[in-house]
Amino acid sequence: MRPSSACLLNILVPVKRAVDYAVKIRVNPQQTGIDLNVKHSMNPFDEIAVEEAVRLRERLKEKVKSIKVVTIGPAKSAETLRTALAMGADSAIHIEIPDSAPSPEPLGVAKALRAVIDRQSEDVDLVILGKQAIDDDSGQTGQMLAGLMGWAQATFASKLEIDTEKKVANVTREIDGGLEVLRCKLPLIVTTDLRLNEPRYASLPNIMKAKKKPIEKLSAEDLGVDLRPRLETLKVTEPPKRVGGGKVDTVDELVAKLAEAGITGVKA
């Protein structure tokens, strides 16, 4: 897809419904996954992505034409979309899957997002999404989407600046040696790091307004994509519990204890 010729930005923000970050994760009795009968909320990195899209509109004013959010998930994922709409997004797309269906893998999500982008009536100029989801920690969707679209990508962004006239973006990202600034042409895929911004709380008036904003419902079949996982989870177990340590009075006693534990080659 070619970038639009106008100096207006159409932004797409993928979001994910995940177990709330404050919930203590527990394995379900069947050991097929984690217990999902707990509080869910928007993936924190995706909240940052929504916030950045809204801030771009505040900085660039009328240069941002639309902010659309999209999610893949069961019916309850509509709550996540409403949160994004209350934060300032204009409209949403819900790719609904059955409650019993496993969470799609990054490649399936990237293919679905490509299909969403291709079916938009206006070209998408910028996709902003979290660098990873806190449930699977894959950190692959943004990169895969950039590869499928043939677009530029800037991952782990801590600062984003866009020149709508030149259709370029400067993206600052943290690397081992300090900061790196990438200059990218639009259309562009950006994945967000924690230091990009701090998401706002949706106000009550905006929450009420969000109820009237449109949510388009689609299925994987509508998009012509297969969201069935390519990997099979055989078993999920909790890590072994840590046992208490012990104290020794001398180095020789420490070496003896290590030898009892099967650690050899240690000398006093």
TrEMBL record:
InterPro entries: ET-Flavoprotein_bsu_CS, ETF_a/b_N, ETF_b, ETF_beta_N, Rossmann-like_a/b/a_fold. Its cofactor is AMP; FAD. Coiled coil: none annotated. Signal peptide: none annotated. SMART domains: ETF (SM00893). PANTHER family: ELECTRON TRANSFER FLAVOPROTEIN BETA-SUBUNIT, ELECTRON TRANSFER FLAVOPROTEIN SUBUNIT BETA. This is Probable electron transfer flavoprotein subunit beta. It comes from Piloderma croceum (strain F 1598). Residues 31-227 form the Electron transfer flavoprotein alpha/beta-subunit N-terminal domain.
